[in-house]
Amino acid sequence: MPVLILRPEPGASATLAAARASGLMAHVFSLFEVRALPWEPVHRAGVDALLLGSANALRHGGAALTAYRGLPAYAVGETTAQAARDFGLNVVATGKGGLQPMLNALDPAHRRLLRLAGRERIELAIPEGAAVITREVYASEPLPMTPDLAALLARPALALLHSGEAAAHFAQLCDEAGIARAQIRLAAIGPRVAARAGTGWADIRCAQSPDDAALLALAARMCQEAGSEHMLPH
Length: 234
Known about the structure:
4pyrrol_synth_uPrphyn_synth, alpha/beta, single chain, 2 domains, about 230 residues, six-stranded mixed sheet, 4pyrrol_syn_uPrphyn_synt_sf, Uroporphyrinogen III synthase, 8 helices, 11 strands, Rossmann fold, uroporphyrinogen-III synthase activity
């Protein structure tokens, strides 16, 4: 069963390499292209720490980001944390379930946060006594379905969903193309992402933790189960 990777680059290529190394028949069909947005920097003296929900903020933030080198940073996951370290930030916390849990456990010295975010992002509940200034530094522009992707979706396939935006966009593209949801399996990186895909799919499940390794492990199990079902006598 083909496994479809829908996330944008450079993450798509990293997922492809890991998927093929684990024996999956994976293909990349990025449904988004990430581009930089113009943004107004905040003076470093007014920032105690950075809040990073994606490595894309560092890839596309531009030259203005150099003003914040050396500052503490809260990163949503290990990939973002590593990008922050490579950039010269002092990562003080790495999340496992989104930004909100880290906000709820802020260092008391970090009360003025600069959130470098995408145009599409999750709203956060700001703890009492803290202030978050948000700057949109990148956007994920949706792309159309390619003929090659449509051809693979004409038969049973499994799609990996790395974001809520990808889930919603993929569902819309399938419906517009007249592709039956009932023959497509979905592996989502978390419950919020799965919810955005809607209903009617052959199967939809969530990874045990919000990371690529867990998502690919789930995809491998789903492919194996689908293969076993196909071999059963009818």
